[in-house]
Amino acid sequence: MGADLPNGCLQIRSTVLDGRLEISLASRPIRQPGPDELVVRVEASPINPSDILPMLAGCNPADGTFAGSAEEPNVSFELSESAMAALAGRAGQSLPVGLEGAGTVVAAGENATELLGKRVAFLSMAMGAFGEYCTLAATDCMVMPDGVTARQGADLFCNPLTVMAMVETLAQIGETAMIHTAAASNLGQMLVKVCNEDNLPLVNVVRREEHVELLRSLGAEHVCNSSAPAFREDLAKAVAATGATVAFDAIGGGTMASELLMAMETAAAGRMPAYSAYGSAEMKRVYVYGLLNPGPTELPRHGYGMLWSVEGWAMPPILESAGPERAMALTQRVVDNITTTFASDYGHEISLAEALSRDAMEGYCRKATGEKYLIVP
């Protein structure tokens, strides 16, 4: 039910073919909503790191062939045999791209008509946010408060709910402090604000001195610059001061996980009543939730003590384990504070077609602080 829909809409699609990846802006039919579904006219959609992986399948924009017209661009990449083997599960499939966004409900199934005309934010694991329209389950949407624009609500889920899932993880495992890397990101700035509000000690790891100043201006107490000569010493002191034995790592590759474990073990060893050649028996955890460095995670395995772990982490399973009532409370906190604590800043606003230009693609793939991209279809 709702307004008559156009015959089709533009969507960014990513397809693995024989030896190549093709990304295009294509016209696709708008799927009519089922009984519990909505059609949202997308008005804003952020480009997050979690969108770049399915769209580019690990390809580097510098290696792309950019063709087509300004209105109908397409980008292609040559894929190696090993890349094709890794992507075999999606060969021949034209995947829609984009996990989240915000817009207006223009059609609804019979069980969701009360949402017609509402402005909603949405997150769909089936993707499709990088398009003019998106058909999805009503349960994937949250109605925006009056006065909140699509631009303000577009990033309601991925970053803010990841922050809340980090806080929830601490509660579930009985910890009260954490370390966070790549902490100057939009997500990292939100985490600083939430930890200040909840009196949770937080150690922030950044890579530039201007990032240190940025987080301190938000009220962060412990900020360590990984490019500074005294990084290891500074990190160990901050970890000892907070008692953190849990870290959330957005970097993934390289030696950062090892650095975090060593700092946590140094602090734990300092709390031991007597020396042990085996190190501390305190559990130390690094949760890897990002791949800013796509290389392998390097763990030399020295100085971590007896108990430690490095494991993958993601927001949806945490919210699922929290249960529907708790998950809804966390989501409602985000909605209530979407223009304050959980506000996102964007350095660039681009169209769907511009998202497939070389300059824009190289820009959002850099994932630089202060350079977040927002698609405005």
Tally of helical runs: 11
Q: Which regions are unreliable across 5 or more consecutive residues at pLDDT < 50?
A: none
CATH class designation of the largest domain = Alpha Beta
| Main sheet makeup | 7 strands, mixed
Strand content: 25-35%
CATH topology of the largest domain: Quinone Oxidoreductase, Chain A, domain 1
Helix content: 25-40%
C-alpha Rg, in Å? 22 Å
CATH H-level name of the largest domain... which superfamily? Medium-chain alcohol dehydrogenases, catalytic domain
The figure for the number of domains is 2
Which term fits the overall shape? globular
Would you tell me the overall average pLDDT?
96
Number of strands: 20
Q: Which secondary structure elements does this structure contain, and how are they paired or packed?
A:
Layout: E1 8-17, E2 20-29, E3 37-46, H1 49-56, E4 65-68, E5 73-78, H2 81-86, E6 94-96, E7 100-108, E8 119-123, E9 133-137, E10 141-143, H3 150-153, H4 158-173, E11 178-181, H5 186-198, E12 202-206, H6 209-217, E13 222-225, H7 231-242, E14 246-249, E15 252-254, H8 256-270, E16 284-288, E17 293-297, E18 308-312, H9 315-322, H10 324-336, E19 348-350, H11 358-366, E20 373-375
Parallel strand pairs: 11-12, 11-14, 12-13, 14-16, 15-17, 16-18, 19-20
Antiparallel strand pairs: 1-2, 1-6, 2-5, 3-7, 3-9, 3-20, 4-5, 7-8, 8-10
Helix pairs in contact: 4-5, 4-9, 7-8
